[in-house]
Amino acid sequence: MTVAASAGEKILILDFGSQYTQLIARRLRELEVYCEILPYHAPKAALIAAKPAGIILSGGPASVHEKGSPRPDKYVFEAGVPVLGICYGMQLLVELHGGKVAPSKKREYGRADLEIVADSPLFADLPKHLQVWMSHGDSAERLNNGFRVDARTGSAPYAAISDETTRQYGIQFHPEVVHTPLGAKVLENFARRICRFDKRFTMAGLLESQVAAIKAQVGDGKVVCALSGGVDSTVAATLISKAIGKNLYCVFVDTGLLRHGDRERAEKVLGQELKLNLKVVDASKLFLGRLKGVSDPEKKRKIIGKTFIDVFNAEAKKIKGVSFLAQGTLYPDVIESVSVHGPSVVIKSHHNVGGLPKKMKLTLVEPLRMLFKDEVRRLGKELGISQELLGLHPFPGPGLAIRVLGAVTPALLSTLRAADLIMREELKAAGWYDKVWQSFVVILPSVRSVGVMGDGRTYENTVVVRSVDSRDGMTADWSRLPYDLLHKISSRIVSEVKGVNRVAYDISSKPPATIEWE
Length: 518
Ligand code: XMP
Prior knowledge:
Blueprint: E1 10-15, H1 21-30, E2 35-39, H2 44-49, E3 52-57, H3 75-78, E4 83-86, H4 88-96, E5 100-116, E6 129-142, E7 148-152, E8 160-163, E9 168-171, H5 183-194, H6 203-218, E10 222-227, H7 231-244, E11 248-254, H8 262-273, E12 278-282, H9 284-291, H10 297-317, E13 322-326, H11 331-334, H12 356-360, E14 363-365, H13 373-382, H14 387-390, H15 410-429, E15 438-453, E16 456-469, E17 477-478, H16 483-496, E18 500-505
Parallel strand pairs: 1-2, 1-3, 3-4, 4-9, 10-11, 10-13, 11-12, 13-14, 16-18
Antiparallel strand pairs: 5-6, 5-7, 7-8, 8-9, 15-16, 16-17
The structure holds xanthosine-5'-monophosphate.
The site of xanthosine-5'-monophosphate has 14 residues, from loops.
């Protein structure tokens, strides 16, 4: 008998609030399995519209036996597609089908040895013993008749369960984390063997479908786009321009807060190499004028955000008949993830161009809104964008303004630019630029210290070098740069940059510090 492939379009992940939900999606996409995340309470209509080939119920911090704990719409079990419950998701399968979940005698957290005791397609082509990662306070205690045990660990007799007739599978461990080394195979078995989802999600395919989608959305319309010169906006603009050519109008705003070479690189790479329809607007005087004397970090961000909108608005108005606005929004900003702790407090008001669309009554074109950052880089490569640009470190919208602590002046910016350039040059020369996630220099104008140069006393500024390793900027650790490299950076800065006589290296991680100093 040949097995028909699924007609579904994706694997759907319902998010019950686990910190690992995005990881499930990333692992699946690495396997070229297209997937999307919806909140656990997604209504039936949204579940139907998603056309899933299978549904994954994520983990989550709640207990299924608590009153009011999250439940999915019952359509999940009526859709006729396979369901995989992970951790909390598995406990839901047990609880909702007449079994029993109870608090474990001992909270299980960490590595465990999983012994596979039945022949399940979920564990096809895997050894009988697997190292897995457990993190749960509740366990299944009794299954209902339909479910059988597929695997156990020392402390979890029901570590994997299944009901082949309804095609429901539950696993108590986390296949998505690196501490379950063969976990990707479990996810692959679910998608390819059990859900029979055989479509491949590739960048070449995505490029083709996105170009067609943009053409269909925009037609002969005109699109305006704010280019920062960074990875996301460049990939978005290059993709759109492939679809609609010169009807895409790109605006690059020189805020006066850019690093050495940023504007020139934008003109060369975006304008000449990628042949985008580019206008460079020098608004540095306006930005620096409005920032004069302002030292509060949030006030600086607000002023920069508003000024950016003013400048961009004025440019957009000059384009006759423009009706679309392109943005390089990425998937992590789109996912309506579930937070059991409510909205988090604002530490820094990022995303300073978020106010653009409402004011301008333009329709959004967001071709990257379903992509993770690493996928954007791969799409960029497919579009022929250079590795040098795709490998650029993130650079914040407010630019150097949040790296001059306190009030910004042209003199401090110029000192900072010189030090920052030296750091980047040395990092690149030593082969470290591509190994770290983000690196930069901060200047501390209110700290002056005594030094000695030649025979003379100096009393000058301190700069701080910051370099961090991170996956997504949410958490970060300081990079263990070699001492010799730090020495080179420090001695060059002190001898070549006027006004700096001391260099410090920031060894704080995030949390409790943040990546930027303001
Ligand atoms: P923090 O300092 O919050 O930074 O640990 C995390 C990441 O975000 C960048 N960042 C910003 N990006 N506007 C931006 O566009 C901002 O106001 C802003 N503040 C921080 C930061 O460079 C790091 O990559």
